[in-house]
Protein 1
Amino acid sequence: MLKEGQKAPLFSANDQNGNLVSLKNYTGKKLVLYFYPKDDTPGCTAEACNLRDNYHAFQAKGYEILGVSPDTEKKHIKFIEKYDLPFSLLADTDNKIALDYGVWVEKSMYGRKYMGIARTTFVIDEKGKIETIIDKVDTKEHSAQLL
């Protein structure tokens, strides 16, 4: 399990436009790295829209926002366009980033066990250290949890 104060694991993945994005792109910047299960589902949409609605407040405090899910680049484009999201989403289709951050976990629904994303947000400082970990995300008020 990652802990606050630790160095954030390095990552590289394509964003919705096929551009390779890595943690190194954010050196010198604060980053809100949020992991969510699936594009265009009720909880994930509420979370993304709450971050969108408060995006200027994040920027004013020097934060960039980056979402990560196992969805494809194509699904991310549709999600971004549908909800006018101002930040990029990474396609972690092989779950490598989720595994490195410890958020690819066994889940259970209706007695059925399966692997999936544990909705978690990491705030990473300018030097690449984990400042804050939020593992009990309030999808409708996530910005308030962060700001």
Note: The first helix runs from residue 42 to 53.
Protein 2
Amino acid sequence: MTTYYDTLDTPVGLLFLAGTEHGVSHVGFMDGEGDLLANVTRLEFETGETPVRGGPECHELRRQLTEYFASKRRDFELPLAPTGTDWQRKVWHALSRIPHGETVSYGTIATRLGRPSASRAVGAANGRNPIAIVVPCHRVVGSDGTLTGYAGGMHRKQWLLAHEGVRLALEPNALAV
């Protein structure tokens, strides 16, 4: 099975894209010159073969992401093929069900998965999401509605949520003078 990869320049920076005929496996942020080589090398290690640049899998992913950033798409219609544990895949599936322009807490996701005390485990799986934006881990916030960590950087999380029209809660000490 051939793995394809590509990149896409977006308002939140350069993205690394990858997938196979089974679906999208990676959408990640690239911050430096060596990130492309590092991502391609990681794919080669994971799959045991040299990935190929381009391919129809990446073309459709690029098209839908471009539409998202142009505010012409709210939901992605792509087959997904992330690699992870059963728990991680359950969390990622739950993330995929968060509607555009809405946020939920880690605790809410844990409760939806039938494990209300597993908010930290949800956070850990959220942080390992290999398909950023398409699997919208940026839509998960703290229980008080404030921003929490984001593997792609808080500036990107803020931008993505603002792009979707989400009004963010102020940080707890934001009103202190």
Note: DSSP finds six helices and six strands in the chain.
Protein 3
Amino acid sequence: MAFAALRGWTPVQKHVVTASYLGWTLDALDFFLLTFVFTDVAAEFHTSVLVVATASSLTLIFRPLGAFIFGRLADNYGRRPILMVNIAVYSLLSFSTAFVPNLSTFLIVRALFGIGMGGVWGIGSSLAMETVRPESRGFVSGLLQSGYCSGYIIASIVFGALYVHIGWRGMFLVGIVPAFLLIPYVWVTVPESPLFNRAKAKGSSIFKVLREHWRLTLYVVLMMTCYNCFSHGTGDLYPTFLRTQHHLVPAQVGTIAVLFNIAGVLGCWFVAPLSQHFGRRRTMIVGALLVIPCVYIWAFGSTLTLLTIGAMLVNFFVQGSWSVIPAHLNELSPREARGTFPGTVYQLGNLFASYIVPAQTIIAQHYSYGVALASVTVAAAVAVSLLVWGCREAKNVDLAHTA
């Protein structure tokens, strides 16, 4: 199925998909670097892990603003130039995290980073989906979403290999890499979306679009809230869980994180192409429900082996279910706001799910990290399944004429 989706690609399509995948990968890298060093940042600034964890929440809170700003710019001026600007912004803000002098500045920089991070997913996914053939969307959706896990893998490697040598500040110096590597690649190899029309774009109003599609907007924001609780509720605190509750050393935490994110990448590559045959909704629901039987050994496993296997299984199905989202949202999106709509509703879901890490931290303080992880994950899996079941589907719709 995946091999059929790969046949007949032009060089332009390959470059566009590669650039979109790398944009989201390096964006995720910069985000996940922080999840490995909550305790270190808390120690340096003489505060609690709960306070530092709010930095992740601030990033999530400000991502919708970035999605809207960069999305509107992409709808008005084109996907390609705004993608490059967006990459430069999030790279510089991640890099600047290494130099913050105090907690207040740290929180401000991570909030601003959220604006930069918020735009890339929507612009990259719309550019890719508008460029590839309809029958390739399932595969491309999985490939794009696997960038989230790929970024986590790179962050895990950086933590496991470099943390003991460069400390938590040195890890954020890696954040400048996208600006030096990816922007030149986009400049040289990636053309504008074949469906972008500057004249028509300038005449469209995002507020008119949202008024006409307000029911769809509210429903999808709610669905994406649950999906973001699902994803961040399983991934963001897991390194802290391993370090705090199981007292693992950085190399062990990094290794487990690499393994469960490899499983997440494989889940994206395996599950999303199935949606091309079985439908977007059915594939997403089955993936979400298959997480539930895996939760016990993931959160309460008594040995390192069980914890690792559980983490790999949970991430395989969480990311597998998630991997259909890029295709699903772009197919549901109004044509005249495709640069804005998918990314904004996704990031608004992040906004409303931004409480999830602090909430899990509070649960962990009263019970344990295992209880916090398991309770949120099971609840999110059920909520995601119900909401996806109630949503409509537009598989293989003509993106040039959708409204």
Note: The mean pLDDT is 86.
Protein 4
Amino acid sequence: MTQPASTTANGQAATGKTLTFVVPSYNMEEYLERCVLSLTAARRNDDIEVLIVDDGSKDSTLEVARTFERRFPGIVRAIHQENKGHGGAVNTGIAAARGMYVKVVDADDWVGPDSLEEVMAVLRDEIAGGDPVDMLVTNYVYDKVGKRRKHVVNFRHAMKAGERLTWDDMGHFGLAEYILMHALIFRTSVVRASGMQLPEHTFYVDFIYAYQPFPWVRSLRYLDTPFYHYFIGRDGQSVQTDVMIRRVDQLIHVNRCMVEATPERGTVPDGLYRYMIHFLAIESSVASVFLILSRDPENYAKKKRLWAGIKAYSPSIYHDVRRKPMSRALNLHGSAGRFVIRWGYRVAERVVGFN
């Protein structure tokens, strides 16, 4: 694996790269061109790095990646590894990144050209100021197949745009509102300092990526722009409802990783603790929903064990997660409670179009 580059006093890579895009790619020959061209579309791209991590693809993903490496020398790098899953590909990309900041972009997704200019301008300004923020948050778009109106997720109610913030400056996050991986740009040194190693051969590790490093984030900034386009609705995608039901054990595993990464109250800023409890309640509820949607009595028992496991790990964390409205709703008793949950999921899916 390529070793991380040395850094300057303020953390910028010695290569002068501002932002590294890590592109985990498994059998993505059909989509990779759209993704890479969007990442290199900035008027100035010499301080952008695009790492295409071919995760043991069976198609021509690696050949496409190498073509872009030749086309954009010094900007695009192709990395090949034996298959380790999405988490393993992200781990490889983080270790190899030479940019001061890092962002994961799945190979079937892309970024908007105008937003890319805004993001790069902000990151360059942060570096030039000598005390760059640890995290930049942007909006993202659910770009669903066949849906003309695209749902844009923003954080205007929770964060003041354009200002340097701490966790205690955060406002109220909505019931199902959280900072998804698609919204995040981390300082590379923050991710590395957190010690995060995503589980290999596991789906839904983006929950962990958007959670575990947060205690190492001291400063952040929100840029109100629709940067990331999340392509959703293609056949076989891991977030389709039937696929998530089949892989619900992996959601349970991710939940356990998140529980173990949750700090106790009083050990981190209050604003950070409140947010992490909010997010943990959401992921716990997501896992619970798909256990219920399965209509499998064995999965109903797994749901009870999931919540019991949180309580066994930390009664205080369990108490704070369990008292959230979404958590209370997901623990309604009996068949009537499960009916309400299924009905609520169908309404949410129709309104937002997230699957």
Note: The longest helix spans residues 270-293.
